[in-house]
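Fill in residues.
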């Protein structure tokens, strides 16, 4: 009986620690031609380093090799990391660059698209 309870407790603790150890997947900025496989994908500036530029630009472009006859577009939000500042939503179409002015804080981009596209996100 004690051995059974011990085995169950071990399995429970192991399962819960594995569940809490999973990390939310965030893609780095810059990312080029990243295949969007989910409807909502997040890109975030890499941690570390300092940026002395007061104003910068975040660029987002979606592309696809598909020859669909209907317009393919994505919805983009630009968010300041660890803040409530959200710019957007912006609607962008294939191969039309989106350029958003940002400050020297850490920023992320959330791209939502219902089609299989490639996304490029970088900061100048």
């Amino acid at each position: 009986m004690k051995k059974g309870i011990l085995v169950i407790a071990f399995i429970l603790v192991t399962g819960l620690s594995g569940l809490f150890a999973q990390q939310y997947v965030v893609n780095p900025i810059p990312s080029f031609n990243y295949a969007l496989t989910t409807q909502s994908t997040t890109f975030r500036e890499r941690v570390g380093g300092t940026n002395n530029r007061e104003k910068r630009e975040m660029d987002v472009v979606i592309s696809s090799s598909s020859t669909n006859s209907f317009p393919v577009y994505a919805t983009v939000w630009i968010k300041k990391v660890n803040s409530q500042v959200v710019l957007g939503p912006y609607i962008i179409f294939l191969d039309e660059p989106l350029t958003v002015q940002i400050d020297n804080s850490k920023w992320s981009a959330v791209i939502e698209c219902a089609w299989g596209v490639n996304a490029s996100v970088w900061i100048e």
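The mean pLDDT is 82.
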